[in-house]
Design goal:
Length: 334
């Protein structure tokens, strides 16, 4: 390469970096990037967080998007924003973006901003809980509009049984057991099982399932993961079947699961891959239209978990289910 060519490449790199530094030169934009560390927010939610008009927030998001610091995510008729999923360490622009994220993440969020984030999560949680309260009697029928229980429960059970050949599970947690259909599997593989759900109606159904199946080693607890964290509970196995798309902050489920797991513990998740079928929000109470596999991998890594086996199941109605496992320590996975 000639000296002139090398100079041209250097200038092109600088030209590509300039929008990133311009976008990150504003304190408010850095705050926006910071709150998107694990969360995905819409324009109205971000306007609420930072106390500004939607038009002003839209301008800042446009600048951030153009620079590559955020990317849009369509959820039905609404647009949400998140940090980019794909960053290549070999590209100067992506390396710069990653360094900016690492720098802003070192600074803790102000308590006032954390309180506003908690308020938004509560709004989402209330919306989901209200749906299940209204439709608890039709829960199974509505969920099977998307995926029949056995289509995801069977491969999850097979994966756990395969791991059981080498790993003995003493205590297991199922987050969001619904009607309790998966509890007989966990009860038969683990000495003690905790089923955690924030819906009293769903727990009542799960209790009937336990009674009908004679499950004597299952404790049903109403609440969220904070309840178990406060008690100091610890588990060898955590399972979340088709739960993440119903919770206000899916990334926090992986973070809390990691905190609740013993060393060598395993988290198994089944959930929808990203889709565009917006009717699922109204008919099934979904808060999110599925997830990119890279999102779950990134959330797991942020929680200190190593991704293990993954399985993808295509359904005739256009949905796709992903079954994922994450380990708290680096274990040989075969």
């Amino acid at each position: 390469m000639t000296q002139s060519g090398a100079l041209d490449n250097s200038l092109n790199s600088v030209d590509l970096l300039a929008p990133i530094f311009k976008a990150s030169g504003d304190p408010l934009r850095l705050e926006i990037v910071r709150v998107l560390q694990r969360d995905t927010f819409g324009v109205l939610e971000l306007s609420q967080l930072f106390g500004m008009r939607q038009s002003g927030m839209s301008h800042h998001l446009k600048v951030l998007h153009k620079s590559g610091l955020v990317e849009p995510q369509r959820e039905g008729n609404a647009i949400f924003y998140r940090r980019p999923l794909h960053l290549d360490n070999d590209k100067p622009t992506d390396l710069t973006i990653r360094q900016i994220f690492e720098a802003v993440d070192r600074a803790p969020l102000p308590e006032q901003l954390q309180e506003k984030i908690r308020a938004i999560r509560k709004q989402r949680a209330d919306q989901s809980q209200a749906f299940f309260s209204r439709h608890s009697e039709q829960f199974r029928e509505q969920q099977e509009l998307i995926a029949a229980f056995d289509l995801y429960a069977t491969p999850v059970a097979d994966l756990i049984r395969k791991r059981t050949r080498k790993t003995k599970w003493q205590a297991a947690l199922e987050i969001g057991p619904g009607e309790g259909g998966f509890l007989p599997v966990l009860s038969g593989l683990c000495e003690h099982v905790v089923a955690l759900d924030n819906s009293r109606d769903m727990l009542a159904k799960a209790k009937r399932t336990c009674t009908d199946n004679g499950l004597s080693n299952v404790d049903l607890i109403e609440g969220i993961t904070d309840v178990l964290l406060a008690r100091g509970d610890a588990f060898d196995l955590v399972v979340a079947n088709m739960v993440l798309h119903h919770v206000p902050s899916p990334a926090d489920i992986l973070l809390d699961a990691a905190a609740l797991m013993n060393n060598g513990g395993c988290l198994v998740i089944s959930d929808l891959c990203r889709h565009d079928q917006n009717w699922a929000k109204e008919n099934c109470g979904d808060l999110w239209l599925g997830f990119e596999p890279e999102e779950l991998t990134a959330w797991g890594a942020a929680a200190g978990l190593k991704a293990g086996e993954q399985l993808f199941i295509g359904l005739r109605n256009g949905f796709q289910v992903q079954v994922r496992e994450f380990w708290k320590t680096l274990l040989p996975i075969r």
